[in-house]
Known about the structure:
Blueprint: H1 3-17, H2 27-37, E1 43-47, H3 53-61, E2 67-71, E3 100-104, H4 107-117, E4 122-127, H5 132-144, E5 153-162, E6 168-169, H6 171-183, E7 186-200, E8 205-221
Parallel strand pairs: 1-2, 1-4, 2-3, 4-5
Antiparallel strand pairs: 5-6, 5-8, 7-8
Amino acid sequence: MILKEGQKLITAFLNENLTEKKRSPSRLDLLRYSVLEAKKPGLFLEFGVLKGYSLNFLAKCKPNQQFYGFDCFKGLPETWGNIPKGYGKLDYIPYVPENVILIEGLFQDTLEPFLEDHNDSVSFLHLDADLYSSTKYVLSTLANAGRIQKGTIIEFDEIFFQDSSNTVLDDEYRAYKDFMRDYDVKVRWIQFYQRKINERWLFFRRIVMKSTIRASLVIEKI
Length: 222
């Protein structure tokens, strides 16, 4: 959607669900806050690992916790806004610490076999899948298997994303709304981060808020 429409949607989302007191000063602060809020026993999962930056950070926040990271490492399976299919392809599997296990392959090929071997519910879920189709698949598959329960923490890495053409992509948000409707879910949003950027013009600079929102919630009913 165009930037102006996206900003209206983001403003409505923040006004309905979050306050300034729940704004994190950085992406890493949001990750740390969210994962430390995950206090129930269970699985700690990330979907969309790329180079492992966020996953490795999460693993350092809880060094005694086992984390699982899902990614095909072959880039986006389809175009996302102005970001082409295949973007993010790696020629190597990223380094991860000892408390991280990587699950390589498309989510549709790896998640269900993984759940057959792991019976726990999900304590923490970091969704960095970007695409509507991928995010919806993960949420639906985990919900159908009964793995998302009261107390599960979910962080969306880009529930709204402003790309380089100043288009606002709401793929993760639409997948979230479908999840809420399909499974009669009630949630409480607990923290968010909105990136500031330094825009340089001919004679001056200005700091503006990018229309990219990362946010986390806790499941209260499902």
